[in-house]
């Protein structure tokens, strides 16, 4: 096969041999991780090895367990669940003798760098191995098992860790590889159960994994608006938890909810360290409330199936970064662990992260519960507080004093995107818990101007919206200037809105800009206004992430996995999949990485004839060397070329391939908008919406103080020139930020193309290409 040529670094005298192993419990995403390590190592001129069966393979050694891998060995791995190189728990590696055997086997194979993907136990073992390495080498030399030359050559071991674990229990990273896939399995199961629960008005107790970490229980609780959750981080009072749970469940039932969902993490405890079990919760619901209650233990289903888009991409980027970290490491560099913060891949100290993680389990054991939540990252705490506010709060006893209660409106603008209903649910439930009055504007700006479609929202109105797809409020693409901006102002004035949340894509972005621009004419718009970007194209300036883009990606990868299966059943057949995205190639690029496609054509690069010719040669070569498991997919954003539709492109490629292969086109169309929103879109919608309400509260508190001293009717104290009160809520550089719409629109936006001037995901292009072995023609 013709492999891409890279280099192993200017200082390397010999080919670096880098091994990868997976260890501990298996997690979806381990295969894309290994694939990325293997292909990046080859791309950089190194020789990758896989150590099969985790540390067991290292201790046993030999060609059965330690194998050099080639480019095509990892073909098609992205769509496969579990870990193809095996994993195990290995007692021998916990003993020095086991690690000594492991050191000998690495040296014999010529390996001096080890990348470990596993949980905190596996990474503790890896760190210990590195710390002991010099003494292990000495012992092997002294016992005559290795030569002096080998001892010199292999005097340093480079270690790099990545966290593969469905529990998301590692400190210092927002997410571990596999966690969002397991969450996806849980949410799918609860969504199914919900339907039967509703029919019979039943209660369900769902037990999920998480011995020391309640992340899965917490996040699935948010995603499914569970009535109650039990997690190890928040030990409940043994005397009161049953009463507390029954109170919430009863209130929800009184308000019209026909179902009850309680999610219990397997490690849930009370403050005496007595487990809170599913059976206990079941008995309480039956005995005290007389509910027809069932227990569903999800068990290993949570580890099952292939990874969701987020995990495939996270694992791939972390695999690439692991190899980079190995090649940049010096003997004095502390072992790194690859982490993610918001959407940025980072390196942190492996020792420190493992130490912080272990301190959580220790704090639980020591009953220092107030420390436990603090030790989790700040995002976990934020999610937990949000869960309590929107699902466990007593909405009839609002938090805020009357004078601070606001009227807040929400509107959907643009095409539907996964998570926009979750945003409305969270906004409503959070507003009610605070004492604010939530208003919905139905059917976008035209609904408001033509039909005065404004209603207050109640908790019952939005029941079930957390997990529903489409737009329950109704949406359209009209912007204020295309309807009647004066009428919009009139209704804002009439309902005395104190704040506005727009959930939408580029039309939402333009809407906010237009409302902000006319504040001097219409005082009604001098209120805090926040745009929560929501569009599958992920093209809204001011953020690196839009609601709905994750749901769309998942729909697209499911579609592509099916197409790929069909393609591999037919000899030498490739498919061009036409993707949405307007002038943004984000969806096509991320799908390219997630499914291991051969290439993607995006509007940012266009399609040149030279590149097309090169791609035809590349695909022909790929069909020559692989048995057809990978390389049959090509993604094309519809707008990547004016001249070539997907069908025309398929025809040209088929003709030019001269019988070596044929290409068909495939159109997923509106499938990309997704059905139910993905867990990522649901939980982010909740987080962003609550942040938006808090932003409005904060800006209004300042102005309310001013209002108290003024008596004029309709006085709106927000300064009309204060642009910091009309903002885009976005994720940027690993932080959630509020950016004034005026500057984002005027300085950061290519208005004609409807995309940001600086494309944050550009670096993904070269990663997508190098992992496909695609040769690029540089113009
Ligand atoms: P999971 O989160 O899925 O449980 P994990 O990596 O924490 O994954 P463990 O069973 O704790 O799972 O560890 C996996 C393997 O790592 C162990 O079987 C052992 O081989 C090695 N290991 C764990 N702890 C140590 C240690 N303290 N010293 C040496 N090796 C260890």
UniProtKB/TrEMBL annotation:
Which residue ranges does the record assign to the Phosphofructokinase domain? 18-325, 407-696
Keywords of this protein's UniProt record, alphabetized? Allosteric enzyme, ATP-binding, Cytoplasm, Glycolysis, Kinase, Magnesium, Metal-binding, Nucleotide-binding, Transferase
What is a GO molecular function of this protein? ATP binding
Query: In what way is its activity controlled?
Result: Allosterically activated by ADP, AMP, or fructose 2,6-bisphosphate, and allosterically inhibited by ATP or citrate.
| Function, in words | Catalyzes the phosphorylation of D-fructose 6-phosphate to fructose 1,6-bisphosphate by ATP, the first committing step of glycolysis.
Its quaternary organisation is: Heterooctamer of 4 alpha and 4 beta chains.
Can you name this protein?
ATP-dependent 6-phosphofructokinase
Source species of the chain: Huiozyma naganishii (strain ATCC MYA-139 / BCRC 22969 / CBS 8797 / KCTC 17520 / NBRC 10181 / NCYC 3082 / Yp74L-3) (Yeast)
- Which part of the complete sequence is present? 187 to 965 of 965
